[in-house]
Design brief:
Distance between the termini: 32 Å
Radius of gyration: 26 Å
Strand order of the largest sheet: 4-5-6-7-9-8
CATH class of the largest domain: Alpha Beta
Shape: globular
CATH superfamily of the largest domain: Metallo-dependent phosphatases
Order of helices and strands: HEHEHEHHEEHEHEEEEEH
Structural class: alpha/beta
Helix content: 25-40%
CATH architecture of the largest domain: 4-Layer Sandwich
Number of domains: 2
Number of strands: 11
Strand content: 15-25%
Length: 378
């Protein structure tokens, strides 16, 4: 009886330790290998202010009731919660940017369901006091361009405290958060404000860079080429030239992109680059990683993969450090889901079988010892 009790204690302990490791310790062990990159200041670099540290993730795709069952939603929410809270606790970013597709079914949801998305987002991705959060809109939040209506667009804006296009300035660094769904050039109801704001930003940045005269009511500031943040990638033909650990798998990698569906249109991309002249563009949407030169060959575009394990077996997020003149980037690879499943199989199946084997062996020895005691050999 004592042997059986000890056996079950070991089994329960094994289960508890496996869960503790997979759901807590493993996240810290994996994500602690990632840290903020260091900017190498040069003699010409203005380093009078501290570099800004910010974190970017995209395509969280909080699941809804139409496409998944409740157990899948609970699992994915928990995985993203553990990964995000671990990352924020380890890295302590000053700003966190979410580049659209916060929800998976935002475009189809009713009022109650969308309110549930809003509540879950603020619970899963809660940040410490003092950390700022900014979001952009994705096609799963309000629909693709042709299906957007004023209700779906308006409720996203109100729920996540964002708008079509906004300029954010922090320590002389300019971020342009853009509603890339609106860049179709067809004068739609939510496209006009974005186009108008882009024209205003173009004039403002030209004023700061001394490329144009400033209006009397504008106070000229130190110019820095902006960082563009949006959901859709800039125009590209495919992911064939992407060489990342989290790149798209074959044959998806060589499939042709559809303009205005998989990426921005070519004309919209050229106009956007010409208007705001970004030094860095960061996007999502494709669910796969890619780093490539901007079409202007005067900067790079980084496409981050989905943060949700349902879309990507090896998701990641980006850590950025920037000054008005420089920026550096490090991609943090998150725990691989198959690795976690393998650890669970070992902890829940193979270790208990091993314990059972050892206890059976020990039990047989005791039985044999008792037999020998009462029936000694002659």
């Amino acid at each position: 009886m004592k042997i059986k009790r000890l056996f079950f204690v070991k089994i329960i302990t094994c289960y508890v330790l496996t869960i503790l490791y997979c759901e807590f310790i493993h996240y810290y062990l994996v994500l602690s290998q990632c840290d903020w990159p260091q900017i190498k200041f040069t003699s010409s670099t203005n380093n009078t202010t501290a570099p800004l540290k910010f974190m970017i993730l995209t395509d969280t795709h909080m699941m809804g009731p139409k496409r998944t069952v409740w157990i899948d939603r609970v699992l994915r929410d928990w995985e993203m919660y553990r990964a995000f809270q671990t990352a924020v606790n380890l890295h302590k970013p000053e700003i966190v940017f979410f580049l659209g597709d916060l929800t998976d079914e935002g475009e189809y949801s009713n009022i109650e369901q969308f309110e549930d998305f809003r509540r879950r987002f603020h619970k899963l991705f809660a940040v410490p006091e003092g950390t700022k959060v900014y979001t952009t809109v994705g096609n799963h939040d309000i629909g693709f361009h042709h299906s957007v209506d004023s209700n779906s667009f308006g409720r996203f804006i109100n729920a996540f405290n964002t708008n079509g296009t906004q300029l954010i300035e922090v320590r002389g660094i300019y971020f342009i958060l853009l509603n890339s769904i609106a860049l179709e050039g067809d004068n739609c109801f939510f496209c006009r404000p974005v186009e108008k704001e882009l024209l205003r930003l173009e004039k403002l940045l030209d004023c700061y860079s001394h490329q144009a005269h400033c209006s009397p009511h504008i106070t000229r500031k130190q110019y820095s080429r902006p960082i563009l943040l949006q959901h859709f990638p800039l125009y590209r033909q495919s992911d064939i030239n992407c060489t990342e650990p989290d790149e798209a798998p074959y044959p998806e990698k060589i499939e042709k992109y559809k303009e205005k569906w998989d990426c921005l249109g070519k004309n919209a991309t050229e106009q956007l680059i010409r208007q705001i002249k970004p030094r860095l563009a960061v996007s999502g949407h494709s669910h796969h990683g890619c780093t490539r030169s901007l079409p202007s060959n005067n900067g790079i575009e980084i496409t981050l993969p989905s943060f949700n394990w349902r879309n990507k077996i090896n998701p990641s997020y980006g850590l950025f450090v920037a000054t008005p003149d420089e920026y550096v980037f490090y991609k943090c690879l998150m725990p691989v889901e198959t690795t976690v499943f393998a650890i669970y199989i070992i902890g829940f199946l193979f270790l208990p079988l091993w314990f059972y084997y050892l206890h059976s062996k020990q039990f047989r020895k005791r039985i044999n010892g008792c037999v020998c005691k009462y029936f000694p050999s002659r």
